[in-house]
Amino acid sequence: MFFKALPATKTVDARAWVRALGLKEHPEGGYFKETYRAEMEIDAPGFGGRRSAGTAIYYLLKSGQFSAFHRIKSDEVWHFYAGSPLAVHVIDREGGKYHKMIIGRSSKRPALQAVVKAGCWFAASVDRARSYSLAGCTVAPGFDFRDWEVGRRGELLALYPEHRQVIEKFTRQ
């Protein structure tokens, strides 16, 4: 079992999920816990060595927090579980076009999954005040911190000056 019992109340808040799932602070912001790492390893050209075939995590953000712009060498599938919709902000690796994907139970376009392609810069946020988003992320080839790069504000602004507002909002000094 990956989690402890949740409180027997109608409303489950972010703190309850953090405790129940045993989440820890993530270096890019929010909270996480790895829940799966494939035993199978694969040769991953361009990754500098072998990697797990796949990994999965729980990931939670509270309003007021954000996942800072970062990129990885693998595709990442986001899955929505609970709370408010989550915004995933993406700058494409080719052409540098920005787009915002919303996952969650929204009335406009409900989507419970979103894919961020390998090499794209991306960040995440919860747009509703006093809320949280609980999601999962599946990565193949599996996530490895050697393949993770946090965006530096100055470098991203030099590359994508047209996205100044979103870069400044979702990077740290």
Textual characterization of the structure:
The protein has helices spanning 14-21, 153-159, 164-169, and strands at residues 24-25, 31-37, 41-44, 49-52, 55-62, 66-72, 75-83, 86-91, 98-103, 113-116, 121-126, 132-140, 148-150. A hairpin with a 5-residue loop joins β1 (24-25) and β2 (31-37). The strands form 3 sheets. The protein has a 6-stranded antiparallel sheet, covered by helices on one side. It has a single domain (14-170), classed as Jelly Rolls. It is globular, with a radius of gyration of 16 Å. The protein is mainly beta and 173 residues long. This is Putative enolase. It comes from Nitrososphaera viennensis EN76. Residues 16-150 form the DUF985 domain. InterPro entries: Cupin_DUF985 (IPR009327), RmlC-like_jellyroll (IPR014710), RmlC_Cupin_sf (IPR011051), YML079W-like (IPR039935).
Oligomer class: single chain
Q: Looking at this structure, what is the CATH superfamily?
A: Jelly Rolls
Number of domains as seen in the coordinates: 1
Q: How many E strands? A: 13
Features:
mainly beta; Jelly Rolls; 6-stranded antiparallel sheet; 3 helices; 13 strands
Give a concise summary:
By secondary structure, the chain is mainly beta. Helices cover 12% and strands 43% of the residues.
What does the secondary structure layout of this molecule look like, with pairings?
Elements: H1 14-21, E1 24-25, E2 31-37, E3 41-44, E4 49-52, E5 55-62, E6 66-72, E7 75-83, E8 86-91, E9 98-103, E10 113-116, E11 121-126, E12 132-140, E13 148-150, H2 153-159, H3 164-169
